[in-house]
Design a protein that fits this description.
The chain has a 3-stranded antiparallel sheet, covered by helices on one side. Strands 4-5 form a two-stranded parallel ribbon. It contains 2 helices and 5 strands; from the N terminus they run βββαβαβ. The N and C termini lie far apart (about 40 Å). The chain is about 25% helix and about 15% strand. The chain has about 110 residues and is of the alpha+beta class. The chain has one domain: 2-Layer Sandwich (60s Ribosomal Protein L30, Chain: A), CATH 3.30.1330.40. The model has no long low-confidence stretch (mean pLDDT about 80). The chain is globular, with a radius of gyration of 14 Å. This is Enamine deaminase RidA (YjgF/YER057c/UK114 family).
Length: about 110
């Protein structure tokens, strides 16, 4: 049997890791990423600052995971965004647009 259709869990040192879970699971040409928090992968701590700084860190972590499985941000087909306060969505969208200059993938907020 070919390994082409095997599920391949992956981790990268460029994004935070958590015990007993993987950052991504790939199958064929499809990769499913796990949730990424605004945690600095070097310090293992929540980044300081407000919603913009934390959004940037979470998206930087996502980018690191995506690139570790030989994809780019533009390959994303769906994003779920969770915020504590809906009033922060304008700030989140501002940072989000920086990571997707050609247009953002569909998202659930």
């Amino acid at each position: 049997m070919s390994d082409y259709n095997a599920v391949a869990p992956t981790n990268t040192d460029n994004a935070p890791k958590f015990d007993e879970s993987f950052q991504s699971a790939s199958f064929s040409h499809y990769s499913n990423l796990s949730a990424q928090l605004p945690i600095n992968p070097v310090t293992g701590k929540l980044v300081e600052g407000g919603i913009k700084e934390r959004t940037k860190q979470a998206l930087t972590n996502i980018k690191a995971v995506i690139e570790s499985v030989d994809h780019v941000m533009e390959d994303m087909v769906k994003v779920n965004i969770f915020v504590k306060d809906l009033a922060d969505m304008d700030a989140v969208n501002e940072v989000y647009a920086e990571f997707f200059p050609e247009g953002t993938p569909p998202e659930t907020k």
